[in-house]
Amino acid sequence: MERTFIAVKPDGVQRGLCGEIIKRLETRGFRLCAAKFMQGSEDFMKNHYLDLKDMPFYAGLCKYMSSGPVLAMVWEGQNIVKLVRMMLGETNPADSKPGSIRGDLCINIGRNIIHGSDTLENAKREVDLWFKAEEFVNWTPCYQPFLYE
Ligand code: DAT
Ligand code: MG
What we know:
With 149 residues, the chain is of the alpha+beta class. The protein is built from 8 helices and 4 strands. The protein has one domain: Nucleoside diphosphate kinase-like domain (Alpha-Beta Plaits, 2-Layer Sandwich), CATH 3.30.70. The chain has a 4-stranded antiparallel β-sheet with strand order 2-3-1-4. The longest helix has 11 residues, at 18-28. It starts with a strand and ends with a helix. The relative contact order is 0.24. It binds 2'-deoxyadenosine-5'-diphosphate and magnesium ion (MG). Residues 52, 57, 61, 91, 109-110, 112, 115, 118 line the site of 2'-deoxyadenosine-5'-diphosphate. 2'-deoxyadenosine-5'-diphosphate binds at residues 52, 57, 61, 91, 109-110, 112, 115, 118.
């Protein structure tokens, strides 16, 4: 089993899309491990997006990510890092296929509503950055034997 970090960004929260995004992850069969509704500081977001520190949009991105509440979550499932990236669509909603979260729900690259870890290594780093051990709930969904062979 893999875990990944997912956040509904401030634009997704403001647009009332938390429920829609949770629904897609739940109905795919992923297990929610941890969740919190919070507003991070600009410095926190600078750390989260450290990989992008040399990009021209880095400062604006971190400022935006700290401008309002985000729904931060850890989800678990077989192959989840890759599967969630496919569910997100492309970074630019304009390149995202209909049926994907970004392809269905947003338009602009700077307002693409959701974050999902892009590799297993980054998922581990982001999960550790956003959540403490005591924030996780250990539970087994009752449908588990019908979802996995
Ligand atoms: P992703 O969120 O698909 O993993 P990323 O990690 O490359 O994409 O970039 C992080 C966020 O930065 C992305 O969700 C939106 C913003 N961003 C990326 N490229 C951008 C660009 N060319 N102009 C403005 N914002 C951009
Ligand atoms: Mg990324």
